[in-house]
């Protein structure tokens, strides 16, 4: 029987999380991925902000500005990626956008291309920026975070 190139298996995607989806943080229960070993940072610097009365963490898609952002990488399947897309509201005008960036493992130095959820720079025009972080969203920042009300 010949091997088929088609597969019923879901695809794997690597997602870099820098805020509430990190292990031990407020939205981690919504993250259905398998964590890759190590701590990662973006190869390019990006602004990392706490925005609005909810203190939502925003990675602003302005490569070259801000600081390298520290986070975790998770391997997710198609279903888990779709759930993350819904949580990050990528189809909404005020939602995040998912795009590929390069991150480096702080232990090994190895680089890989991963998905990240970030805010377009145009979002800053109306943003209520509360805090500018130096690249690392910590538990003390997560303590300020308020979940979005269910609609």
TrEMBL record:
InterPro entries, per database record: AIG2-like_dom, GGACT, GGCT-like, GGCT-like_sf
Signal sequence annotation: none
Gene Ontology terms: cellular component: cytosol
Alphabetical keyword list: Transferase
Domain (Gamma-glutamylcyclotransferase AIG2-like): residue spans on this chain: 15-121
SUPFAM superfamilies according to UniProt: Gamma-glutamyl cyclotransferase-like
Keyword Transferase among UniProt keywords: yes
Active site as annotated: 88 (proton acceptor)
GO molecular function terms attached to this record: gamma-glutamylaminecyclotransferase activity; transferase activity
Family listed: Belongs to the gamma-glutamylcyclotransferase family.
Protein's name in the database: Gamma-glutamylcyclotransferase family protein
Annotated source species: Marinomonas pollencensis
């Amino acid at each position: 029987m010949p091997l088929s190139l088609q597969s019923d298996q879901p695809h794997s995607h690597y997602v870099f999380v820098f805020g509430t989806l990190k292990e031990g943080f407020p939205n981690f229960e919504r993250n259905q991925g398998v964590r890759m070993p190590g701590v990662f940072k973006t190869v390019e610097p990006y602004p990392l902000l706490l925005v609005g009365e909810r203190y939502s963490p925003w990675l602003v898609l302005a490569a070259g500005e801000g600081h390298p952002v520290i986070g975790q990488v998770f391997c997710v399947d198609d279903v888990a990626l779709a759930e993350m897309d819904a949580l990050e509201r990528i189809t909404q005008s005020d939602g995040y956008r998912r795009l590929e960036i390069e991150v480096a493992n702080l232990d090994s130095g190895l680089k890989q291309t991963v998905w990240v959820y970030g805010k377009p720079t145009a979002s800053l025009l109306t943003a209520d920026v509360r805090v500018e972080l130096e690249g690392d969203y910590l538990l003390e920042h997560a303590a300020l975070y308020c979940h979005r009300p269910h609609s």
